[in-house]
C-alpha cells in the first residue's frame, strides 16, 4: 500500500507538501489495524474466541482500521482513494480479488502443510507437487485463452466462469486430495482446474479493476491493484488456518502431547501415531478448504453481479445521453 504514496511537491509558497508524511501515517494505521485483526483470528482457536486477548485485539484492529478510513477521507492526497468504492465496477473487482486471494492463498497454505508436516515431504519435494497450478496458468496465458474468451463472454461471465472453475478445483483438493498420500491424482486434477480458472478470471478482473478508475488516477489504481490480493491472502491464511487448528486440536490424539502443526507430527511416536495424526488432520483440512472454495465462488458471483449492474447502468446512461 505504501507504493501508492506520492512524492512531495513544492507549494506556491516554496514549502514542500507533507504528502510523504501523510502517506506514512495512513500506511501505519492500515498495517496496525490489519495486524491486530489477523492476530485475533489466529489466536482465537488457542485462547478462545471470547477471551480478553482476542476481543481486545479484534476491537483495536477495527478501531484502527476505522481511523484509517477517517484519515484517508480527509487528507488531500490519500494513499487509498476511498471514493473509488462508490462505483459498482470497482467494488465488484475488489470483492472478487479479495475473495479469490482468501480462498486460494489459504487453501494452498493448507496444502503445503499437509505435504510437509503430515506426509513428510521436504520443501524441494512438496514444491513440484504444486507446480501443475503454475504451469497451467502459464500455458493457458501464453495461448491467450482468456483474452479470446473475454470479448465473447463479457467481463462478468468470464470472471464468474473462471472463479467457478477455481472454486471447483479447491473443492476437489478438499475431497480428492487425500490426507494420507493416496490422492495425488485427485490433487493433480484439482490444481489443473484451479490453474484454468485463474487464467480466465484474473485478466478479466484486472481489466475490470483498471477500467473502473479514471485515466488520470491510473497510477494510483495500479498501486492499489495488488492491495486487495495481499489483504485476502493474509486473511485467508489466518481464517482457514484457524478453522484447521480448531478442528485438529479436537481430533488429534491426546497421547501425542501436542495439538498443532508441525509440533504434533514431530511429537508422534511410531507410524501408527503418525497415521492417527494424519487422520485427525484430514477433516480439518477438508472443512477449511471447502470454506475457501465457498469464498471463491461467492466472490465470483458477487463480482459478476456487480459488474453486470455497472454495465447496465453505463448502457442506460449512454442511451439517455443519446
Strand runs, count: 0
> What is the strand content?
under 5%
* Class per helix and strand makeup: mainly alpha
Tally of individual domains: 2
How many separate helices? 10
CATH superfamily (homologous) name of the largest domain? MFS general substrate transporter like domains
Euclidean distance between termini CA atoms: 40 Å
Q: Determine the CATH topology of the largest domain.
A: Growth Hormone, Chain: A
Unreliable segments (pLDDT under 50, ≥5 consecutive)? 1-16
Give a quick account of the main beta sheet: strands, pairing sense, barrel closure. none
By CATH, the architecture of the largest domain is named Up-down Bundle
Strand-helix topology:
Elements (H helix, E strand, L loop, with lengths): L18 H29 L4 H23 L13 H31 L4 H21 L1 H9 L1 H22 L7 H28 L6 H34 L11 H5 L3 H51 L1
What does this structure look like?
- This protein has 322 residues and is mainly α.
- It has two domains: 1-80; 84-321, Up-down Bundle (Growth Hormone, Chain: A).
- It has helices at 19-47, 52-74, 88-118, 123-143, 145-153, 155-176, 184-211, 218-251, 263-267, 271-321.
- The longest helix has 51 residues, at 271-321.
Amino acid at each position: 500500500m505504501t507504493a501508492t504514496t506520492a512524492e512531495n511537491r513544492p507549494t506556491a509558497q516554496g514549502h514542500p507538501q507533507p504528502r510523504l508524511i501523510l502517506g506514512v501515517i495512513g500506511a501505519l494505521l492500515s498495517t496496525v489495524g490489519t495486524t491486530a485483526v489477523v492476530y485475533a483470528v489466529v489466536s482465537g482457536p488457542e485462547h478462545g474466541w471470547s477471551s480478553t486477548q482476542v476481543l481486545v485485539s479484534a476491537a483495536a484492529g477495527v478501531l484502527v482500521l476505522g481511523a484509517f478510513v477517517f484519515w484517508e477521507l480527509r487528507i488531500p492526497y490519500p494513499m487509498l482513494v476511498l471514493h473509488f468504492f462508490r462505483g459498482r465496477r470497482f467494488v465488484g473487482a475488489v470483492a472478487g480479488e479479495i475473495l479469490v486471494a482468501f480462498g486460494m492463498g489459504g487453501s494452498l497454505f493448507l496444502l503445503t502443510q499437509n505435504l510437509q508436516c503430515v506426509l513428510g515431504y521436504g520443501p524441494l519435494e512438496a514444491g513440484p507437487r504444486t507446480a501443475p497450478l503454475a504451469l497451467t496458468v502459464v500455458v493457458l496465458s501464453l495461448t491467450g485463452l482468456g483474452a479470446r474468451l473475454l470479448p465473447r463472454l463479457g467481463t462478468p461471465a468470464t470472471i464468474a466462469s473462471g472463479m467457478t472453475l477455481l472454486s471447483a478445483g479447491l473443492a476437489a483438493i478438499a475431497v480428492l486430495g487425500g490426507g494420507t498420500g493416496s490422492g495425488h491424482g485427485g490433487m493433480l486434477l484439482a490444481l489443473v482446474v484451479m490453474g484454468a480458472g485463474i487464467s480466465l478470471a484474473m485478466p478479466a478482473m484486472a481489466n475490470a479493476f483498471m477500467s473502473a478508475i479514471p485515466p488520470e488516477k491510473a497510477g494510483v489504481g495500479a498501486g492499489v491493484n495488488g492491495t486487495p490480493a495481499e489483504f485476502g491472502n493474509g486473511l485467508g491464511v489466518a481464517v482457514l488456518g484457524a478453522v484447521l487448528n480448531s478442528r485438529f486440536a479436537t481430533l488429534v490424539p491426546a497421547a501425542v502431547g501436542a495439538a498443532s502443526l508441525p509440533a504434533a507430527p514431530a511429537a508422534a511416536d511410531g507410524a501408527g501415531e503418525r497415521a492417527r495424526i494424519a487422520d485427525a488432520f484430514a477433516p480439518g483440512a477438508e472443512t477449511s478448504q471447502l470454506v475457501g472454495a465457498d469464498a471463491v465462488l461467492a466472490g465470483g458471483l458477487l463480482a459478476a453481479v456487480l459488474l453486470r449492474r455497472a454495465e447496465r447502468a453505463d448502457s442506460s446512461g449512454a442511451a439517455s445521453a443519446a
